[in-house]
Amino acid sequence: MHVPIPAIPVLFRRRAAGSRRALIAAAALLPALAVPLAAPAAPAAANGVVVGGAPTTTDSEPWVVALASRQRFGSGRSGQFCGGVAVGPRTVVTAAHCFGQEALGVADWRNLPDLRVISGRTDLSGTAGEEVPLSDVWVNPDFDATTNAGDVAVITLSQALPDGAVIPMAGPADTAPYTAGTEAQVYGWGDTTGQGAYPDSLRTATVDVLADTVCEKAYPGDADGRYLRASMVCAGVTGGGKDACQGDSGGPLVADGKLIGLVSWGTGCAEAAYPGVYTRVSAVSGLVAQHM
After folding, report:
1. Which one of the listed residues 69, 78, 249, 282 is annotated catalytic?
2. pLDDT (tens digit, 9 = 90+) per residue, 178-226?
3. CB-CB contact of 260 with 170 (8 Å)
4. What domain count does the chain have?
5. What's 88's domain CATH number?
6. How far, in Å, CA of 110 to CA of 4, rounded?
7. Which of 19, 119, 123, 151 is labelled catalytic?
8. pLDDT digit string (tens) for 56-103?
9. Residues 133 and 256 in one domain
10. Buried b vs exposed e over 50-59: b needs ≥16 C-beta within 10 Å?
């Protein structure tokens, strides 16, 4: 089922045309916003399915989790606003900007008492799985809001997730998954049309890891950000049509059985000239490990 978002003003972290980040509520009761997949440059939908994507479940991908706050984003779709990835029994990685004041509406996440990580819930309209309180959050102090480099945060959960609900992170020695042409999967709950139609259930789309030069050309440095190959990953489809999009922030990019990227930023959604930009997990895995 798709939930149309009513005409409530919504701000993005950067220009609306340029951000594929956490969706920011301009009203406290904004319906839950989510991780879009495979929205083409010209919005299109067929029978309410993600164009270029496919359904999946948290049974097969138990490490895909949602960040949620009904207080901030409303009760629909469990109040989801960002994605995350379980990399340890009590450790979730996500995007640093998901914990900014612009996203949460408060300077300190502790002032949003219903903030939860939702695990094991394929359908956000249901009640399956667990809603786990946060014990601690480390936000990368070197996150650069101008270039978007270092866009990572580490959540420590108040209780352990079920056995097997984690995925390994790519490390500095893992170069193969970052080779141009490698197939990767991006996951989430989000806009399937580019116009605010959000599915309740988890979906996935297959994209390609692209050469760094592609994103260096697309993002030389402007209001959206600057592509830096040492800390970012370029991924998409050469002709456009598959991508992460608004609200996907912090969700996983997976290749060769490892987490290689976190949804971070980009211009528009699924546009041929503007691939998605992801936090390069191999560049931050050491930092994450320090907070596990």
Report:
1. 249
2. 999 999 999 987 766 666 767 788 989 899 999 999 999 999 998 889 9
3. yes
4. 2
5. 2.40.10.10
6. 30
7. 151
8. 999 999 999 999 999 999 988 999 999 999 999 999 999 999 999 999
9. no
10. bbbbeebebe
Contacts of 151 (CB under 8 A, 6+ apart): 95, 96, 97, 140, 143, 262, 264, 265, 279
* CA–CA dist 171, 259 (Å, integer): 9
Residue 213 phi, psi dihedral angles, 5° rounding: -60, -30
Residues 153 and 278 in one domain: no
pLDDT at 258 over 60: yes
Calculate the CA dihedral of residues 225, 149, 119, 50 and round it to 10 degrees.
30
Residue of 216, 246, 231, 186 whose CA lies nearest to 19? 246
- Pair 87, 133 in one domain: yes
Which of 19, 69, 78, 97 is catalytic? The answer is: 97
249 catalytic, yes or no? yes
CA distance 263 to 94: 8
Q: What is the mean pLDDT of residues 48-53?
A: 41
User: Is 97 a catalytic site residue?
Assistant: yes
pLDDT at 194: 60
- β-pairing, 258-265 vs 276-280, is antiparallel
Q: Do residues 234 and 195 both lie within one domain?
A: yes
